[in-house]
Amino acid sequence: VYNALEQIFERYDSWYSDLMESRLQGQSIQTLLELSYPLLQSPLVVVGMDFSVIAAVRGEEVMMPRGVFGSTEETYNAITTLKQDKAYSDCLELDGYFYYRAPVDGYNSLCVNIKKYGRTSFRLLMLDLENTQDLSAGFLLQMLAGLIEHALLHNTAPLSREAGRYLCPRGHSFDRAAPGYVHLLPANRKH
Fold this sequence. Notes:
This protein has 191 residues and is α+β, with helices and mostly antiparallel strands. Helix content is 38%, strand content 22%. The chain is built from six helices and eight strands; from the N terminus they run ααββαααβββαβββ. The chain has helices at 2-24, 29-40, 59-62, 73-84, 86-91, 138-153; strands at residues 44-48, 53-57, 97-100, 108-116, 119-128, 160-162, 165-167, 173-175. The strands form two sheets. Strands 2-1-5-4-3 form a five-stranded antiparallel beta sheet. The protein has a three-stranded antiparallel beta sheet with strand order 6-7-8, with no helix packed on it. α2 (29-40) packs antiparallel against α6 (138-153). The protein is globular.
């Protein structure tokens, strides 16, 4: 049992380290999703509140074309229905992870709103193709959303190294802890 727990811990720790290294190198949101797919095993999509697809792993082949959802005659009705859905509007104000039951296409999803300057501007979706309504990955999705938020705010530019810390092009400083890790998330979003 101990070995099994240790393997699980190592798998999640490795994923988290890979995500942090990706951010330190200024890699894209697409890369963050690609690093997360093997662990989460579900399609991942980051969409703007204007319904534009920012990045996707396996999501576009399942439910949507690349680009703006409503940009085709085929998707126009689905987008119009979403815009008029009260549950969709109510979700804009939510913090943390939540489960959204899609009124249109049946592709329900575990979601996290990503805020820019205090306002929901993007959403990370993990599609629930099996309709399991499983919330167990919510914490992991929330961690991933925090890194995506960081990438959006910092334009995915690489961080430069200085003695004991990293600096982003906007002048934000991220201290390196004695064990060697770096926290890129605000203190209230670390764990």
